[in-house]
């Protein structure tokens, strides 16, 4: 029996079009059906109840910080972070493991010795890596070897340089973990109070600070913390990144005080040393003539060589935090850090803000003239012939070489590497005198050195 042939789809379509069914539904019913279909298909497209909602499989990556009143959640967060940091600390090489690494490196040194340094080849380096244990694995890579490879004709690296590299990495991780324990928010930065706690608990571990009286601890901590925040928090946000603390040299200077035999010169040049902290605090007490714990403008005018202009000091008290027109110790520390480090961008930023009276973002001829007039007045008081502003102005613009020949920006000052000289000329009579007589001073220095040479012979 022949198979019955199925009608073609085009024939079916033609028959349906020829005999259309009349839709007797009202407009409201049609609109309701349209809405229902739209909702159905939209829900399916978005995932639907019975569909696999793949977006729900994405792991959660944001957890809000506990509020101040959520004590239990805060404690849980602190404990979990402490456990995490302890685990990270256990992953670091301890003293015994570092000693073992040194013995292995020394055992695998490859002759000949370069100068006085023992060397190791790449093959021996990989052998040490296999025997040193899992904690050392990350140090024995081609990248690290290439980083330490210099001009050795045999393609070797210095064992001492490699070991110092490992020691430095371990120290950085240890220090980061130590700082992170004080990071209450767990956001990778320290607030002022966090850093104060860190340094306060660090004091007993620094032999060079053994002589400090406990009554001075709070002043010492304030002195130390201000240096970190003055240079690492230029926008005055009240917090600094732990990464920035590790990247700068300040922590090295602070931890240098572990050396029991630190020279007197090193102590005097180290802001964090006991003699340095006592010097700064002693200056503050000497300036405070009325012994009220604060400095007035008149008291501050005796700072250093007592040659800062009154116009500059007026601006200090206008721009920076004071209490009833007087300066506290913390504000004084910023003032000292700025004037003792005038080559540094952060210090120039501090002084530039004072010189830029109208907050324009640049210094023009009017600004320079306004401050230099005070220098001219001081010269008259000391019986000196005032120097022409026109000459000084030309010299300043020649030194700075600003992009705009009529305006000096902060960046111009920083780029010129003459910012310390320019600011000294404008705010300090002694600084201006030193600049004016620089050639005579250099000649005198040369004469003195020649005399010393003759005495030696």
UniProtKB/TrEMBL annotation:
Which keywords describe this protein according to UniProt?
Answer: Calcium, Cytoplasm, Metal-binding, Nucleus, Repeat
Compartment annotation: Cytoplasm; Nucleus
Q: What is its main location?
A: cytoplasm
On whether Metal-binding is a keyword of this UniProt record, the answer is yes
Q: Which InterPro entries is this protein grouped with?
A: EF-hand-dom_pair, EF-hand_13, EF_Hand_1_Ca_BS, PPP2R3C
Top-rank taxon, per record: Eukaryota
A Gene Ontology biological process noted in the UniProt record is: B cell homeostasis
GO MF terms held by the record = metal ion binding
Q: Where is this region: Disordered?
A: 1-31
- Domain PP2A regulatory subunit B'' EF-hand span(s) in chain numbering: 184-260
GO cellular component terms listed in the entry, alphabetical order: centrosome; cytoplasm; nucleus; spindle
For this protein, the record's CDD domains field holds: PPP2R3C
What is the protein name given in its UniProt record? Serine/threonine-protein phosphatase 2A regulatory subunit B'' subunit gamma
Q: Which organism is it from?
A: Seriola lalandi dorsalis
Q: What is the lineage of its organism?
A: Eukaryota, Metazoa, Chordata, Craniata, Vertebrata
């Amino acid at each position: 029996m022949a198979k019955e042939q199925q009608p073609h789809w085009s024939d079916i379509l033609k028959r349906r079009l020829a005999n259309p069914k009349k839709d007797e539904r009202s407009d409201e019913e049609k609109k309701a059906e349209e809405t229902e279909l739209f909702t159905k298909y939209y829900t399916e497209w978005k995932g639907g109840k019975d569909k696999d909602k793949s977006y729900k499989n994405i792991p959660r990556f944001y957890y809000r910080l506990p509020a101040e009143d959520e004590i239990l959640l805060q404690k849980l967060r602190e404990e979990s972070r402490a456990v995490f940091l302890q685990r990270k600390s256990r992953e670091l090489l301890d003293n015994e493991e570092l000693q073992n690494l040194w013995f292995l490196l020394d055992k695998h040194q490859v002759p000949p010795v370069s100068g006085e340094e023992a060397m190791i080849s790449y093959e021996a380096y990989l052998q040490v890596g296999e025997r040193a244990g899992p904690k050392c694995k990350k140090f024995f890579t081609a990248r690290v070897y290439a980083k330490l490879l210099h001009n050795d004709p045999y393609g070797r690296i210095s064992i001492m340089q490699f070991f110092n590299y490992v020691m430095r990495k371990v120290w950085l991780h240890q220090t980061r973990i130590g700082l992170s324990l004080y990071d209450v928010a767990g956001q990778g930065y320290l607030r002022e109070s966090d850093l104060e706690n860190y340094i306060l608990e660090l004091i007993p571990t620094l032999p060079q600070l053994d002589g400090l009286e406990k009554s001075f601890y709070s002043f010492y901590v304030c002195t130390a913390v201000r240096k970190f925040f003055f240079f690492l928090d230029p926008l005055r946000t009240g917090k600094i990144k732990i990464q920035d603390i590790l990247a700068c040299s300040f922590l090295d200077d602070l931890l240098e005080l572990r050396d029991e035999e630190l020279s007197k010169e090193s102590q005097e040049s180290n802001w964090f040393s006991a003699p340095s902290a006592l010097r700064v605090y002693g200056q503050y007490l000497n300036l405070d003539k009325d012994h009220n714990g604060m400095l007035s403008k008149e008291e501050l005018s005796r700072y250093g060589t007592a040659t800062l202009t009154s116009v500059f000091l007026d601006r200090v008290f206008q721009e920076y935090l004071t209490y009833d027109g007087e300066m506290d110790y913390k504000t004084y520390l910023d003032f000292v850090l700025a004037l003792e480090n005038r080559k540094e961008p952060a210090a120039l930023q501090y002084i530039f803000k004072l010189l830029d009276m109208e907050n324009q973002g640049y210094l023009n001829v009017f600004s320079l003239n306004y401050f230099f007039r005070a220098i001219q007045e001081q010269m008259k008081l000391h019986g000196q012939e005032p120097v022409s502003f026109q000459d000084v102005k030309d010299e300043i613009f020649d030194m700075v070489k600003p992009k705009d020949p009529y305006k000096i920006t902060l960046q111009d000052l920083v780029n010129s590497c003459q910012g310390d000289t320019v600011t000294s000329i404008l705010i300090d009579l002694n600084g201006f005198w030193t600049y004016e007589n620089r050639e005579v001073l250099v000649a005198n220095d040369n004469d003195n050195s020649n005399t010393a040479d003759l005495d030696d012979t």
